[in-house]
């Protein structure tokens, strides 16, 4: 049903009826009674561009996402396995030898 | 090629998403979505639950409960000041003054300001850590290969009624609302979102939004990486001389403090370099020129805590000057080691248990140590107000318990068991396991407000005090306690035991290793829930062991 022809339901019961009529694949929360008005919980998001310039969310990335991702390969071996499947891991990635015991390197400075 | 479906609530057999919460009557959805994003990414990058405070995110960003906002504002605050846990600054809808004013006893009932140890209990994020994506395929690739993403959308008015099924309503929006996208399903044609309208919305607070609704497709998604969680969040998953710190490229280097002769050496394993090399950082000794009070005095390997005092390292060890325990600390701000004090019984035996507890903020230090009469002594250093019974910083003997104990190790744990709220202050039973005269392990518990009680005896033939953590297994969300994991030396090998808080029986899981004298450090860290051990060998060298999906492995031997 098109948006124009749909009436705005005032109660949960009306919404249930509309959803049934339209064959929509979702149901209102079963805890809501038919006679209740539609719940209207608080939201609170600013529209994009609203508010001071310095508080805006970052602009969408434009470029090669694969290259961006490769800058920070994951440490979690479960995620790394997924990266391997996606051919995102570089051969020379320092974590490529995880699962090995580690090497000994004495007097290498401080841990920073 | 990206996956056809992803659901971070159940990926590789693990849940990576914290429970859904409620923004109550406040239009602060943006703070909830941002907090949920950071919590999910810490879990994915460090394999630890890291409950953060929406109150800290929102009020820290300079906004009150009636203010609208966006995820970008939270990210600016987090980048500069980190993001704290609810016990530091809880969520509330009341007006709050967010300042550096320390808590006093008279103010403790109101969440007016964060606790004074905030710097040591915040998640830290690198500059420019948010990435925005608008292309639908790129969003899904990020969700598949990195993690969940936050999004700001304008759902129709019936969105608040969603129960089960796939939301498909197309219509005029009823107001901007922030969500966390935790997955997608191409065959089913829907996104999976975490909302902030409580567990009553959708199914347990999560909903499915159909591609047909075209609600999320036009919006920019925000993802992040490079989380650096605080030691307070990781405290239960480690013990003894071994710490997973925030250092290194992935903020997960191992730091270890070892006795070499009478000296203490600080070593670290670098996870940003090929081969994960172990490096010696320094010899631990007083760097206070006015009080050169400790060096070359260590008789037993130290037990370390990375505390909420600005992530300082705190060490407690048996020393040969007064033959008591010594507490020293590394001050992150100055880069110096300082002597705190000596305390405890004369001629203590074994490695003590040492943790920072939930009593106060900064939390008190708790030590359980074996005295020369075979009894266990529980000592506390009071770190914060109210100062009714003890002076600031004073170590005092709190209680004595047990008998016939012959050795102890770093097995003191403050469990999440029994804590029903997200707020933990003053809660959490203490657990300690000690070695009895017949090689049996004696398990003691101190419930809040109660007395130490022996709850179990298990094992046999152990040769030294054990090391114990409360790990990630069975911790299905941030509110559920994990299993106790214990490793102990027996017949020069290591026995691994575990105990579930529901079933309360100790089970032996494995026997492995060789030439082992005692287990002195343990953690479950960033490497996919692997268990990591540091053991002292019979030849007085130290060795690293770890367990992954293929079992236990012997690692490098650190030289004497």
Distance between the termini of chain B: 48 Å
Shape of chain A: elongated
- Poorly predicted segments of chain A: 1-5, 106-112
Q: What fraction strand of chain A?
A: under 5%
> Helical stretch count of chain A?
3
Largest sheet features of chain B: 8 strands, mixed
Fraction of residues in H or I helices of chain B:
under 10%
Greatest chain-chain contact: A-B, 71 and 107 residues
| Total strands of chain A | 2
Q: Uncertain runs of chain B with pLDDT below 50, 5 residues or more?
A: none
* Gyration radius from CA atoms of chain B, angstroms: 24 Å
Summarize the amount of helix of chain A as a percent range.
10-25%
Helix and strand element order of chain A:
HEHHE
Mean pLDDT of chain B: 94
| Total strand segments of chain B | 36
Q: Which term fits the overall shape of chain B?
A: globular
The overall average pLDDT of chain A, rounded, is: 83
Number of helices, counting only DSSP H or I runs of 4 residues or more of chain B: 5
- The helix/strand class of chain A is mainly alpha
Main β-sheet of chain A: number of strands, strand sense, barrel status? none
Which properties best describe this structure?
heterodimer; A: 112 residues; mainly alpha; disordered N terminus; disordered C terminus; B: 560 residues; mainly beta; eight-stranded mixed sheet; five-stranded antiparallel sheet; globular
Summarize this structure briefly.
With 112 residues, chain A is mostly helical.
Give your account of this protein's structure:
The complex is a heterodimer of chains A (112) and B (560). Chain A has helices spanning 12-22, 65-70, 77-85; strands spanning 26-28, 104-105. By secondary structure, chain A is mainly α. In chain B, strand 17 and strand 18 (325-331) form a beta hairpin. Chain B is built from 5 helices and 36 strands. Chain B is globular, with a radius of gyration of 24 Å. The model of chain B has no long low-confidence stretch (mean pLDDT 94). In chain B, helix 1 crosses helix 2 (54-60). The chains are: A mainly alpha (112), B mainly beta (560). Chains A and B meet through strand 1, helix 2, helix 3 and strand 2 of A and helix 1, helix 3, strand 4, helix 4 and strand 6 of B.
């Amino acid at each position: 049903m098109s948006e124009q022809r749909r009436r705005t339901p005032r109660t949960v019961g009306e919404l249930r009826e509309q959803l049934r009529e339209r064959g929509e694949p979702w149901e209102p929360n079963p805890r809501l009674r038919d006679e209740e008005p539609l719940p209207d919980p608080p939201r609170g998001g600013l529209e994009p561009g609203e508010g001071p310039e310095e508080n805006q969310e970052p602009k969408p990335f434009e470029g090669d996402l694969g290259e961006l991702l490769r800058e920070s390969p994951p440490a979690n071996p479960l995620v790394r396995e997924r990266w391997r499947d996606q051919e995102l891991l570089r051969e020379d990635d320092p974590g490529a030898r995880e699962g090995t015991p580690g090497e000994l390197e004495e007097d290498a400075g401080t841990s920073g | 090629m990206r996956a056809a479906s992803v659901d971070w609530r159940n990926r590789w057999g693990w849940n990576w998403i914290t429970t859904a919460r409620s923004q109550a009557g406040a239009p602060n959805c943006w703070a909830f979505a941002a907090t949920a994003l950071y919590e999910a990414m810490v879990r994915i990058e460090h394999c630890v639950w890291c409950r953060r405070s929406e109150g800290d995110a929102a009020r820290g960003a300079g906004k009150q409960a009636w203010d609208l906002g966006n995820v970008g504002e939270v990210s600016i605050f987090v980048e500069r000041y980190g993001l704290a846990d609810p016990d530091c600054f809880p969520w509330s809808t009341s007006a709050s003054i967010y300042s550096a004013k320390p808590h006093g006893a008279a103010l403790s009932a109101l969440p007016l300001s964060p606790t004074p140890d905030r710097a040591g209990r915040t998640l830290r994020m690198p500059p420019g850590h948010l990435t925005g994506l608008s292309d639908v395929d790129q969003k899904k690739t990020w969700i598949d290969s990195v993690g969940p993403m936050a999004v700001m959308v304008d759902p129709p008015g019936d969105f608040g009624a969603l129960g089960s099924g796939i939301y498909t309503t197309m219509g005029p929006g009823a107001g901007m609302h922030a969500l966390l996208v935790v997955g997608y399903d191409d065959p089913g044609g829907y996104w999976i979102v975490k909302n902030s309208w409580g567990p009553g919305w959708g199914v347990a607070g999560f909903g499915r939004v159909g591609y047909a609704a075209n609600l999320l497709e036009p919006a920019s998604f925000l993802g992040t990486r490079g989380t650096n969680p605080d030691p307070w969040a990781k405290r239960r998953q480690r013990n003894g001389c071994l710490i997973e710190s925030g250092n290194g490229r992935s903020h997960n280097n191992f730091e270890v403090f070892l006795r070499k002769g009478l000296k203490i050496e600080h070593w670290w394993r670098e996870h940003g370099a090929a081969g994960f090399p172990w490096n010696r950082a320094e010899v631990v000794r007083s760097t206070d020129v006015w009080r050169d009070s400790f060096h070359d005095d260590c008789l037993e390997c130290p037990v370390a805590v990375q505390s909420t005092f600005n992530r300082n390292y705190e060490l407690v060890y048996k020393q040969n000057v007064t033959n008591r325990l010594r507490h020293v600390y590394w001050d992150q701000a100055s880069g110096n080691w300082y002597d705190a004090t000596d305390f405890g019984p004369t001629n203590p035996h074994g490695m003590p248990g040492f943790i920072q507890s939930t009593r106060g903020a900064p939390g008190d230090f708790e030590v359980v140590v074996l005295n020369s009469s075979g009894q266990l002594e529980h000592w506390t250093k009071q770190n914060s107000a109210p100062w009714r019974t003890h002076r600031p910083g004073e170590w005092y003997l709190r209680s004595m318990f047990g008998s016939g104990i012959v050795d102890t190790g770093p097995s003191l744990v403050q469990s999440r068991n029994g804590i029903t709220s997200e707020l933990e202050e003053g809660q959490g039973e203490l657990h300690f396991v000690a070695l009895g005269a017949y090689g049996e392990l004696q398990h003691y518990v101190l419930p809040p407000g109660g007395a130490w009680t022996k709850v179990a005896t298990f094992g046999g033939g152990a040769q030294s005090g054990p090391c114990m953590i409360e790990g990630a297994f069975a911790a299905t969300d941030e509110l559920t306690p994990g299993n106790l994991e214990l490793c102990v030396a027996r017949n020069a090998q290591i026995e691994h035991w575990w105990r579930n808080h529901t079933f309360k029986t100790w089970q032996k899981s494995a026997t492995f290793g060789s030439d082992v004298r005692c287990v002195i450090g343990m953690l479950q860290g960033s490497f996919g829930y692997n268990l990591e051990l540091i053991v002292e060998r019979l030849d007085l060298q130290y060795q690293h062991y770890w367990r992954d999906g293929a079992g236990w492995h012997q690692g490098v031997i650190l030289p004497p």
